[in-house]
């Protein structure tokens, strides 16, 4: 076995990667999946749901000195809730405005509603077709406006209402300033355009003094004018500036305009005291995604960006930075790492915005000018993060892997080590695998989206997915994230697994070095691939089965439907030896799904059907079969969800069913996984990412070696491989694993601790005894011992021989 110590050897994937898992367990104060006294009190553990990566949507639509107008993402994240007024430090109050299913708050009423703060803490609510309401949020008084016939709402600014009517050509571009005086509504026609006309959708922004108006000349030239609300006159201030997708914001000292049209990256800023003077241009920068959005405080221009997510881009953003740019020039300041794109100018000074460092730091904040003239932040109200979404999970030898669709910027896999026993605990959660943030394309970005991770029992995790070409592949992950990709290719013909909706690849079974992945085995054209992860030269497909019938692997045995109707057969993947059962399936039906754990083989002829007796469990030791409910096989039990009764049940094989938990209707069909290399069950309710882990209460099978790779001979003088290597795949974890080497006389020449990881053990020895000398050439007996980590059953004992040459006798 000369190649075992070359670069990229198998152990670099398993042993090296699992050092991370061992460290992970240590960080959580755990040893590999201890289940001491588990069966007496069936211990359990609850793991809280992780937070969603994306902060809760909480756009701000207006702000007064004492509160903000906002909307918050609803519970199921499908829309934004109703507009509400949230006083600083107070309880939110719903506003009488409709709740569209997007982030529309168009100033011309395009979304059906428009809510703004006009002055002080007075909120203007326009809700078509019911009209306009001004509500003083401090006093509680309400003023209702009925717009004159033919008038179109364009906004409320202080005590003024701006409307438009149609001209002789039918264009809604004639402006009116309405005001309530002595209980009467006065109507003043806007003047000063001097032959120029206001564009439809002309209101770009304003405050209680002025409104920015986009206007056009009949020759097609455009500009932005300043409407003085007190005089109802418009003065051109930014000739040539467009109103297409433009925004204009006002502070006491400045107004700022920006439009992205034509690739523009520059904002134009005017002093309000001298609007006729030349503008100051502030470069917003061409870097970064999204469209700049503006705010003003003191002598600073605030900017963040609004993202437009493309259809095939699934990267989740937390919001662009909130940056303050000195209007007179100078170094910018980053105020928040991330911010929502809506900013609200506060009448009298300041800006309100929602943002923070992450979803856990999200809050409504006010930006004002500090005593030193620089921008200062104040938190008004924290916005709690939402619970993340769990799509699949795996529990193998205490190694819990979760597939999470939204707890980071792209769907990813996370891992932690679980300990039950007297003091159940979960180790620190860490990232196992995630696409890079620069990854593009739906296939690559969604590599782990709703894909089922399966543990192999030796610390590795396998996932069936697709590559950039859409071809089915098996992704193999060590605990340190090292990734190997195995294509679904027939080794005999080179034919790839078919693609399309009829062929969805998934890991069907895994045990140590052997994995089955591919189709479900229910169709005549289905293909299932058997992979050897530790094959010479690297992981590869060993064989392919096409047609109906499931496959399952345990140790070196590959189980499949037998050649005789109603039978099963097992092929030893190392020796090729085949053994068959007597007919055991219901009416000779063909098992479309198989599961194998220890001495148990579960078969199901109708996994997607309603036939209640087309499934059962076969005991390979007693060669008997018994009924078990349709579900997931564990070591000596089957766990199944009873949809009619809304409960998760566990049935010890040959014994009565007991209920793990009864659910309400909203928690139908949980995600459930049985630890095939231990005695635990992990599950999560369908609409919750909270995970519960419980001991099955069923005694596990005695620990056994189910597969091994042990050097039979070693040349201690070899220049390439002078070390004895041994790896054992066990049926469950052990502690205090040791290897003892004895000579022909039975005398111990060496003993040492073996490395434990998941349900596997590894050992290396350089042939030197305790005094530093090499052993004498000859054949030695080795013995592996260990204590079952769950305290159930006899101690582990495995033996064999190894021949050494190049030792003491030849040196």
TrEMBL record:
Record-linked PROSITE patterns: TAT
A Pfam family: FlgD_ig
Top-level lineage group: Bacteria
Sequence ranges assigned to domain FlgD/Vpr Ig-like in this UniProt record: 726-787
Entries under Gene3D superfamilies matching the protein: 2.60.40.4070
Protein name (Swiss-Prot/TrEMBL): FlgD/Vpr Ig-like domain-containing protein
Species the sequence originates in: Streptomyces montanus
């Amino acid at each position: 076995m000369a190649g075992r110590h070359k670069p990229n050897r198998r152990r670099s994937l398993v042993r090296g990667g699992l050092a991370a898992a061992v460290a992970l367990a240590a960080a959580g104060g755990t040893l590999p999946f201890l289940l001491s006294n588990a069966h007496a009190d069936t211990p359990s553990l609850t793991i809280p749901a992780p937070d969603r990566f994306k902060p809760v949507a909480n756009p701000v639509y207006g702000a007064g000195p004492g509160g903000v107008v906002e909307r918050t993402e609803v519970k199921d994240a499908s829309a934004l809730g109703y507009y509400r007024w949230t006083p600083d430090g107070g309880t939110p109050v719903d506003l009488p405005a409709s709740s569209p299913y997007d982030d529309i708050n168009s100033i011309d009423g395009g979304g059906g509603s428009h809510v703004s703060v006009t002055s002080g803490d007075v909120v203007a609510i326009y809700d078509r077709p019911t009209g306009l309401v001004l509500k003083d949020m401090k006093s509680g008084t309400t003023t209702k406006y009925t717009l004159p016939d033919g008038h179109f709402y364009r906004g409320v600014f202080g005590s003024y209402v701006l409307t438009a009517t149609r001209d002789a050509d039918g264009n809604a571009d004639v402006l009116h300033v309405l005001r309530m005086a002595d209980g009467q509504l006065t109507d003043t026609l806007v003047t000063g355009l001097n032959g120029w006309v206001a564009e439809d959708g002309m209101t770009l922004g304003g405050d209680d003094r002025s409104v920015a108006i986009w206007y056009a000349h009949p020759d097609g030239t455009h500009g932005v004018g300043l409407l003085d609300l007190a005089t109802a006159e418009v003065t051109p201030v930014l000739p040539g500036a467009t109103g297409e997708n433009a925004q204009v914001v006002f502070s006491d000292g400045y107004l700022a305009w920006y439009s992205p049209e034509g690739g523009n990256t520059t904002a134009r800023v005017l002093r309000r005291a001298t609007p006729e003077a030349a503008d100051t241009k502030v470069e917003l920068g061409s870097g970064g995604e999204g469209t700049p959005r503006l705010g003003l405080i003191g002598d600073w221009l605030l900017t963040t960006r609004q993202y437009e997510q493309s259809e095939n881009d699934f990267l989740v953003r937390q919001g662009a930075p909130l940056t303050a740019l000195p209007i007179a020039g100078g170094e910018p300041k980053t105020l928040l790492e991330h911010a929502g794109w809506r900013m609200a100018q506060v009448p009298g000074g300041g800006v309100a915005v929602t943002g923070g460092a992450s979803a856990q730091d999200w809050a409504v904040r006010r930006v004002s000018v500090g005593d030193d003239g620089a921008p200062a932040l104040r938190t008004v109200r924290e916005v709690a993060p939402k619970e993340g979404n769990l799509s699949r999970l795996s529990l193998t030898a205490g190694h819990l892997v979760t597939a999470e669709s939204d707890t980071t910027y792209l769907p990813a896999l996370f891992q932690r080590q679980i300990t039950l026993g007297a003091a159940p605990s979960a180790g620190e959660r860490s990232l196992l695998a995630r696409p890079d943030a620069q990854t593009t394309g739906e296939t690559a970005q969604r590599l782990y989206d709703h894909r089922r991770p399966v543990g192999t029992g030796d610390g590795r995790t396998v996932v069936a997915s697709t590559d950039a070409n859409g071809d089915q592949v098996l992704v193999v992950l060590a605990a340190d994230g090292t990734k190997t990709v195995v294509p679904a290719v027939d080794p005999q013909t080179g034919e790839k697994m078919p693609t399309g909706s009829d062929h969805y690849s998934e890991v069907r079974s895994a045990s140590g070095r052997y994995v089955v992945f591919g189709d479900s085995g229910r169709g005549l054209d289905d293909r299932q691939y058997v992979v050897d992860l530790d094959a010479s030269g690297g992981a590869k497909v060993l064989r392919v089965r096409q047609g109906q019938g499931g496959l399952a692997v345990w140790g070196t045995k590959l189980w499949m439907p037998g050649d005789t109707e109603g039978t099963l057969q097992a092929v030893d993947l190392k020796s090729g030896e085949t053994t068959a059962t007597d007919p055991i399936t219901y009416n000779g039906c063909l098992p479309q799904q198989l599961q194998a754990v220890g001495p148990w083989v579960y078969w199901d002829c109708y996994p997607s059907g309603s036939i209640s007796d087309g499934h059962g469990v076969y005991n390979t030791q007693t060669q008997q079969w018994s009924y078990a409910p349709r579900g997931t096989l564990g070591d000596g039990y089957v766990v199944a969800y009873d949809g009619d009764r809304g409960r998760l049940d566990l049935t010890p094989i040959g014994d009565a069913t007991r209920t793990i938990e009864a659910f309400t209707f909203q928690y139908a069909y949980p995600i459930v996984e049985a630890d095939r290399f231990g005695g635990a069950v992990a599950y999560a309710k369908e609409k919750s990412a909270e995970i519960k882990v419980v001991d099955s209460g069923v005694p596990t099978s005695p620990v056994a070696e189910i597969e091994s790779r042990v050097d039979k001979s070693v040349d201690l003088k070899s220049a390439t491989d002078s070390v004895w290597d041994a790896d054992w795949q066990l049926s469950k974890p052990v502690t205090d694993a040791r290897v003892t080497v004895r000579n022909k006389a039975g005398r111990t020449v060496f003993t040492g601790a073996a490395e434990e990881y998941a349900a596997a053990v590894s050992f290396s020895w350089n042939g030197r005894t305790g005094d530093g000398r090499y052993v004498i050439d000859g054949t030695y007996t080795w013995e592996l011992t260990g204590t079952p980590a769950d305290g159930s059953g006899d101690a582990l004992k495995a033996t064999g021989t190894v021949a050494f040459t190049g030792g003491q006798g030849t040196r």
